[in-house]
Amino acid sequence: MKVLAILPAFLDIENIKKSIDQIMPGLEIATNTEFEKNDADVVVITTFTPFGKKEMDKFPELKYIQVASTGYNNVDLKEVRRRKILLCNVPVANKDAVAEHVIGMSLALLKNFIPFDQQIKSGNWPLLTNSRELQGKTFGIIGMGAIGIKLVQKLIPFNVGIVYYDPRRLKPEDEEFYGLTYLPLDELVKVSDIISIHTPLSKETRSMFNESRFNLMKENSIFINSSRGEIVDEKALVKAIKEKNIYAAIDVFSVEPPDFSSELFHLDNVIFSPHIAGVTMESQERFITETIGNVIRYSQGIDPLYKVEDEL
Fold it and tell me: Which parts of the sequence belong to the D-isomer specific 2-hydroxyacid dehydrogenase catalytic domain (predicted)?
């Protein structure tokens, strides 16, 4: 079995290679797909590498694609299905990192951390505050996969009410165990003080949050997106921030880096991060471990974990 890992050049390729060689000697690493052919039958990629028909044509022996990430919308699923290629991702490695990031963003907006910091650094001493507490708020989670469940677990000590929506409703015993209330999507949007998105990008979720859905949100509520930028209509978000005083925390954008001339970046009540909600030192180690572990399973004739089957 020949394995090729295609990793972005900004990573520490040399150290990654040293770490992997101890477990899987002989693994090849490339930083792009600018070659004519490769006889690898297993390819490991990240979300930074588009992987469609053109790329797959370069691998005549390809049988298995391992995405070292939760997301896999950079892979052409139709081509994977047509070629009967096994596709796996790693949906669990960054769940703690994303959940903590979402809670951090929630607290930053509720407690006005950034405006206070800016005012004090400018020599001002604000005497009044409109800070709010997380305790007692209704926290709406859209998407109850591994990250959604981890977010629930971390929110429980904050004494919030948690409502959720997912096309696949949890078992009643799981809802009871975590103290969750299932709501249809629009109802969740209406009642939530904070909304956090944790769904993959699909035909159903693209532009899920458009003008009509933002109009359902409470005034002064908080909207957090650490999933995929295309799930949100940016113009509709800007309008909601301006007209309903909605607060927003955005980690992902439809184009990255985004267009910084967008009005979104000139509004108050918004904080940003550069698509790093799931990126921590610890989560990157877990991604490598889970990815290599899956490839080893495959090499030993054992079914790898986290097969992407529902969309294939």
Answer: 37-308
